[in-house]
Amino acid sequence: MISVDVALARSDFALDVAFEGGQGITALFGPSGCGKTTVIRLVAGLERPDRGRITLGDTVLTDVERGVRLPPHRRRIGLVFQDALLFPHLSVATNLAYGRFFTARERRRVERDAVIAVLGIGHLLDRRPATLSGGERQRVAIGRALLTSPDLLLMDEPLAALDDDRKLEILPFIEHLRDAFAIPILYVSHSVEEVARLAATVVRMDKGRVAAIGAPAEVLAPTGLASATHRFEAVSVVTGTVAGIDEAYGVTTIAHPAGSIVVPGRLPRAGASVRVTVRATEVTLSRERGTATSVRTALAGRIEAVTTDGGPFALVTVLLDGGETLYAYVTRLGFDALGVAVGDRISALIKAVSIDERGLAGLEAPEERKA
């Protein structure tokens, strides 16, 4: 377990955070400039806090009061940054070996062959970094970090430098390493889809402080009516099981107690549990399911709350059949025209094209991405 309780003051920024992360992925989430990367640098030992304490299991990494500050190379932490930072003159195999070389033999818990298999880089071993795609380079960088047999893996926006296709390529590999190796991960991102898909715990940061800690569905949900700009950040996270794939149309149907959810792409493993991230601005409310529409997803529920502030928008909280919560941003004009109120039954319509594939666990990459 990683435990962080630190403060750091700069001329233009103040950080004061406290949180704990366990097994799996703990995501630091928030807008640019909120202090996520600074936390990563403090945990890695690349910066010194003004006060506080950082522990990893039974090991004290930093304790300002006691004058303890382990140097970075003794912290047993693997680092993965936005840029892969591979040695350009070395092959993939030698880059991987570099991570293992500086780890004492008795501490080598992570096997090279297992890392190569999980990350799918066996066919790249003889190549140089310049010949790899961005996604391939980042997978090699992750492999190099894993082969140090770290007690903690720090990933600082590892997908930020990649285009959307490469992000979709590498996300399944991050899931696989999360599940295959018993190494906790501290993961920095400002992408709500990445966080909802990967994280067990989300630490939401704002202006150098911790705003909320909890499961993705709790922390990523809107806490009230957002500003006109921030309404696009309001999301719901609902969970269903893979029911089937329509190969002819390239979509997957996810079963949910409130109805079927149709998403783009092919999700393998029928019966597997899947988190689906839905932006509140992409939900349409209807009194009836209706048939004269191209929308294939209609989730049944009951209106639990309506939040307004006299402006043009209303945030509608829908308690779905089955117990999960879905949020919808609509205009007050549109909501009033429906003639419904708190307690009434409602149908929430969601276009498949509005669901970002990055938020879907287990998504199969199209054939052209599997090289």
Report a brief summary of the structure.
With 371 residues, the protein is an alpha+beta fold.
Which descriptors apply to this entry?
alpha+beta; six-stranded mixed sheet; 8 helices; globular
Describe this structure in words.
The protein has helices at residues 36-44, 92-101, 112-119, 134-146, 164-180, 192-198, 216-219, 332-338, and strands at residues 2-9, 14-21, 25-29, 51-56, 59-63, 68-69, 77-80, 152-156, 185-189, 201-206, 209-214, 235-246, 251-256, 259-264, 273-279, 283-286, 297-308, 313-320, 325-331, 345-350. The chain is an alpha+beta fold and 371 residues long. It has a six-stranded mixed sheet with strand order 7-8-9-3-10-11, sandwiched between helices. A five-stranded antiparallel sheet has the order 2-1-4-5-6, covered by helices on one side. A hairpin with a 4-residue loop joins β18 and β19 (325-331).
Coarse structural class: alpha+beta
- What is the overall shape? globular
Q: What is the residue-averaged pLDDT? A: 88
Please estimate the helix content: 10-25%
- Quote the beta fraction: 25-35%
Radius of gyration (Å): 22 Å
Topology readout:
Layout: E1 2-9, E2 14-21, E3 25-29, H1 36-44, E4 51-56, E5 59-63, E6 68-69, E7 77-80, H2 92-101, H3 112-119, H4 134-146, E8 152-156, H5 164-180, E9 185-189, H6 192-198, E10 201-206, E11 209-214, H7 216-219, E12 235-246, E13 251-256, E14 259-264, E15 273-279, E16 283-286, E17 297-308, E18 313-320, E19 325-331, H8 332-338, E20 345-350
Parallel strand pairs: 3-9, 3-10, 7-8, 8-9
Antiparallel strand pairs: 1-2, 1-4, 4-5, 5-6, 10-11, 12-13, 12-15, 13-14, 16-20, 17-18, 17-20, 18-19
Helix pairs in contact: 2-4, 4-5
